[in-house]
Amino acid sequence: MIAPHIVWKIKADCYRLFMLSKQDQMQYHPKMTELLQAALEPVNLFYTTLLAMVLLYWLSVMLGALDISALDFDLDTADADVDADLHGGGSWLAGVLHFFNFGRLPFMVVMSVVVLAAWCLAILGNYYIGQHTWGFALATFLPIIFASLVLAKLITAPLVPLFAHLDGTVQEVDYIGQVCQIRLPANAEKFGQAEVQIDGDWLLIHVKTETQEMALRSGEQALVVGKTPDGRYYLVRRLEDDKD
Q: pLDDT at position 112, please?
């Protein structure tokens, strides 16, 4: 049997621990509320909206609705288009973007760091220096964007060799002609997901059917027969229909 004085000591220690945690909550809760209020200030709302869009994008990537390279674009092609429009005066744009690691990394990887850095700089600058005035916010907009680009370049620089290595070693898998197992229902309007076994590994791909009448349910087997015109999804047919 535990001695009464030991029980009382345990109770006293638990009470002090509880009161300490309550004091910590009272200390940090106002700070979090203050941060939220600062983020929703009109002078910071532009940066907060961009950050929310970035978070929504990465949530979509994690859920499989978007690919990490969904918003990528070819800088060389874009530069050629600008050159054609401006008679050779647009080549500097591609050089600037490459300097800040656009084109070397997935677009949204760099842009996410830029947006997060800009949000932090805006929140801190407007709070400690600008006192939430529109004049200060407008005057610091371009400096904040430039500083965010520089910070993004420094932060993402270690990732450039990694992605360059991946681009040089990972070969694109040819799924056309492969049999797949439907995991999420697919039709001609709404894409689904299917698993394809390649060299013993199960790989997940986004799929659509050629017509609404050829819609596939989860668990059905299908054959990958091509890609959509935009190249984002693979076209599949029910395996029995293809045999017929």
A: 93
For the chain, the residue count is 244
What phi and psi, each to the nearest 5 degrees, are found at residue 182?
-75, 125
Kindly provide the residue ranges of all beta strands, DSSP E only, lying in 48-178, ordered along the sequence. Answer: none
237 bridge partner residues: 223
CA distance 149 to 118: 9
| Cα–Cα distance for residue pair 112/54, rounded to 1 Å | 6
Give the H/E segment covering residue 92: helix 91-99
Contact, 224 vs 235, CB < 8 A?
A: yes
Whole-model pTM: value is 0.55
Check if the beta carbon of residue 153 is closer than 8 Å to that of residue 100: yes
- Confidence band (pLDDT; 50, 70, 90) for 19? low
Distance CA(186)–CA(192), nearest Å, equals 4
Distance CA 166, CA 168 (A): 5
Rounded Cα distance between 223 and 66, Å, is 23
Residue whose tokens read 């993004």: 152
